[in-house]
Every structure is written in C-alpha cells, then in structure tokens.
Design a protein that fits this description.
The protein has three helices and three strands. By secondary structure, it is an alpha+beta fold. The chain has one domain: BolA-like (GMP Synthetase, Chain A, domain 3). The longest helix is centred in the middle third of the chain and has 12 residues. The termini are far apart. This is BolA family transcriptional regulator.
C-alpha cells in the first residue's frame, strides 16, 4: 500500500478537509481533519477512521496507523 492509496481509502469513507499520510508501507502516521469529528472523543475519532479501512486493518495490509485527528476549528488553532 502507498501513502496515496491509504489517503484515498480514508477520504472515500470520511469527508475530510485535510489529510496528511506518511509511512513505510506498513507503519503509517496520519493527520486527518474532518467536521465529522465534532463532538467525538479521540477514541471515537480513531474508530471512525478505522471503519473506513475495514478489513485492511485485520489482514495486516495496514499494520499500524497512528493518528492525529482534528475538527476544522481545532486544525485552524494549531500552531504552524
């Protein structure tokens, strides 16, 4: 799996305003910004992203994914 493929999978199941994906083909990190995260706790946000990946998380196609998840307002407040 490539970073572009992983980014596309997440975007196909979750309306995102911004996605950054980096990794080595098995271990990934992502920054995901979505209005769908509003009102959700961090674990619920991660579960929402995992749901977009479905069986790929269980078949080891995506071995590990660390995430930073933000609403658009939270993302705007991040220092850059």
């Amino acid at each position: 799996m490539t970073a572009d493929q992983l980014r596309s999978l997440i975007a196909s199941g979750l309306a995102c305003e911004h996605i950054e994906v980096d990794g080595d083909g098995r271990h990934w990190s992502a920054v995901i910004v979505s209005a769908e995260f509003a009102g959700l706790r961090p674990i619920q946000r991660h579960q929402r992203v995992y749901a977009t990946l479905g069986a790929r998380m269980h078949t080891d196609e995506v071995h590990a994914l660390s995430m930073k998840t933000f609403t658009p307002a939270e993302w705007q407040a991040q220092p850059r």
